[in-house]
Amino acid sequence: MTQPDRPLIERVRKLLDKAERTDSAHEAEAFAAKAADLVARHRISPEQLEAREGKGNDLSIRELLVGRGAYVRGRIALLGNIAEAHDVRMVFQATPAGSVAFLAGGRDDLDLVEVLYASLHAQVAGQMAGLRRSTGAATQRERRAFLFGFANRIGDLLAESAAAARAESEQRADGGASTSLAVRERRERVDGFADESWGKVRSAGRPAKLSPDGYFQGVDAAERADVGRTRLGGRAAIGRGRRGR
Q1: Is the pLDDT of residue 225 over 80?
Q2: Which residues are bridge partners to 95 per DSSP?
Q3: Fewest beta carbons within 10 Å, which of 32, 107, 132, 176?
Q4: How buried is 105 (Cβ within 10 angstroms: 0-12 exposed, 13-18 middle, 19+ buried)?
Q5: CA dist 45 to 53, 127, 217, Å?
Q6: Is the pLDDT of residue 228 over 60?
Q7: Is there a contact between 153 and 223 (Cβ–Cβ < 8 Å)?
Q8: Are strands 98-106 and 59-67 parallel, antiparallel or unpaired?
Q9: Helix ranges, 170-225 (H)
Q10: What is the DSSP letter of 200?
């Protein structure tokens, strides 16, 4: 089979760019579906799509300060769940300036994770500020549980979206084989890059017990969260999701 020519690859790139930029959900689905069809029929690899002059999705490490204090582990949980859903690996380290997350992945994926984390953190922080209890300690416990509930439900929503995208790809002519292979290869590249960059890492301990009321309030807040309509790497846009406890 001959290699796809440059105009065809560029056409797919433009379709994906349009899908990412449009504010119309229907247009995004149409552009992305057409791009996916061309990728499957012409066996265009992720490397071919990424190989733009001066651009691409090269693997790299990014540092993100997540702060300190009672809510830092909740912020790390939120960032970690977003990263995992976008094939980005994360470790974190405590420093004098606060905890720092180290993210490993493709440049475009890192951009998306950083933007989505900033948006969701701003949303949950605003709602946490409205929580008040009888004492300062009780307020802090409630807010901390709220943040963990929010973070975990956001992780569920992102996982559900990824599963839906995989199920959709399996209905295509090749049974989703090309998409599954591309996803697996990308994950293996990221895992190998992260292992080589970090070496052996130590697992973090479990967080302290959480208030059930605060936790499930956070879950409900995640149901209403605006996670945007950004599409990257063939992932479907995230809606409000389904409630699940």
Answers
A1: yes
A2: 98
A3: 132
A4: buried
A5: 16, 43, 43
A6: no
A7: yes
A8: antiparallel
A9: 177-198, 212-223
A10: S
